[in-house]
Amino acid sequence: MAGVPDLAEWIRERIRLKKARPIPAHVNFFYCFGGISLFLILLQLVSGLFMLFFYVPQPDQALQSIVVLSNEVPLGWLFRNLHRWSSTLLLATVFSHMLIVFYLKAYQSPRQFTWLTGVFQLLLVFLLVATGLILPWDWRSYWSYAMWLDYVNTWVGGAQIQQWLLDHFTLKLIYYVHILAIPIGLAVFLYFHFRMVKKYGISEPL
After folding, report:
1. CATH number for the domain that contains residue 41
2. 85-88: Cβ within 8 A, 24+ apart
């Protein structure tokens, strides 16, 4: 039983470390949107991993695979709705977090890098939602895809870029961008974001 005192001492040490780093008095609910966003990202990861086993990234099978997931797979409807609605909430909470940080001017020195990694995370979350809307490949997905291509033509400029996207961005490619490229990028920016938060702490209102 020699390990019991060691375990008790380890727990006491952790408690002392927590007490040495108290939560600032000015922190309120509006400072919690970052933590809520992280929880929603983890919820997206769990529900998305479940859906990977049933979704088929083929134009003629995508919608049917989602119908099977929602109606025949046990708890499939739950995981699909968790994934769908938490994505909308995630975009809202990340955007709200950015607005609050901007309002509090927490992007100023020495937290510029924290701000920049947060901005890139917002863009990646937006791309996650945009690509996720296309994957069911129903009429909403089709017109969403057409709408994004029109935005590319209008904002980026050039029918050539729009045509290149039409020629190369297949449903399977969008699927792999959605489940691999964007999540990996988001994980990288999250890592650096939390490193900066740990280094510089939570800013105080100016």
Report:
1. 1.20.810.10
2. 86/40, 86/43, 86/44, 86/47, 87/44, 87/128, 87/129, 87/132, 88/129
Which domain range does residue 172 map to?
Answer: 28-200
Q: For the segment 101-124, what is each residue's pLDDT rounded down to a tens digit?
A: 898 888 888 888 999 999 999 999
Interval 26-59: pLDDT, tens: 566 667 888 899 999 999 999 999 999 999 999 9
* Residue 106, helix vs strand vs coil: coil
What pTM value is reported for the model?
0.82
For the chain, what is the domain count? 1
Contact 198, 34 (CB under 8 A): no
Q: b/e for 92-122, b at 16 or more Cβ within 10 A? A: ebbeebbeebeebebbeeebeebbebbebbb
- CA–CA gap between residue 58 and residue 129 (Å, rounded): 19
Tell me whether residue 8 is in a domain: no
In a domain, 12, yes or no: no
* 18 lies in some domain: no
Q: Report if residue 15 sits inside a domain.
A: no
Neighbours of 187 (CB within 10 A): 12
Tokens encoding 106: 């927490």
